[in-house]
Amino acid sequence: MNFDGSSDSQALISQLSHDARVAIYDEDNLTVPVISDAQIITNNLTEITTLLEAAGHSVDLLTEEDILDHELITADYDVFIIVDNIPRPSIFNLIKEFS
User: Fold this and answer.
1) Engineering a disulfide at 82: which of 20, 25, 58, 96 sits with its beta carbon 3.0 to 4.6 angstroms away?
2) CB pairs under 8 A, 24+ apart, for 63-69?
3) pLDDT band at 11, cuts 50/70/90?
């Protein structure tokens, strides 16, 4: 999914309940999708954060270390987003527990 300010992106963001608490996985190790022939890939965290905050949602970027410190919990976040990457094995179970 591409959050780029397009009408499709805005429609997806508007489907979240107002003032949703969003956590986004902040990881520099990106995985190029198999269906993509892109030479340069980015996790677009700035763009996604800007779009979500403009729609009235609170957004926090969580690193692997943050998740290992148990900061990803349903008491603090309504939504967890992973963009163009795969979580490190050390946090798989903690992410599963969130869902």
Assistant:
1) 25
2) 63/26, 63/27, 64/27, 64/88, 64/90, 64/91, 67/25, 67/91, 67/94, 67/95, 68/94
3) low
Residue 7 burial by Cβ neighbours in a 10 Å radius (0-12, 13-18, 19+): exposed
> Tokens 């999914």 belong to which residue?
1
The pTM assigned to this predicted structure is 0.71
State the amino acid at position 51 in one-letter form: L
CB-based contacts of 9, cutoff 8 Å, min separation 6: 1, 2, 3, 51
List the structure tokens of 7. 């009408």
Which of these, 43, 48, 67, lies nearest to 59 by C-alpha position? 48
Note whether 58 and 93 are within 8 A (CB).
Answer: no
Higher pLDDT, 95 or 99: 95
* pLDDT above 60 (res 32): no
The rounded Cα 93 to chain-centroid distance in angstroms is 17
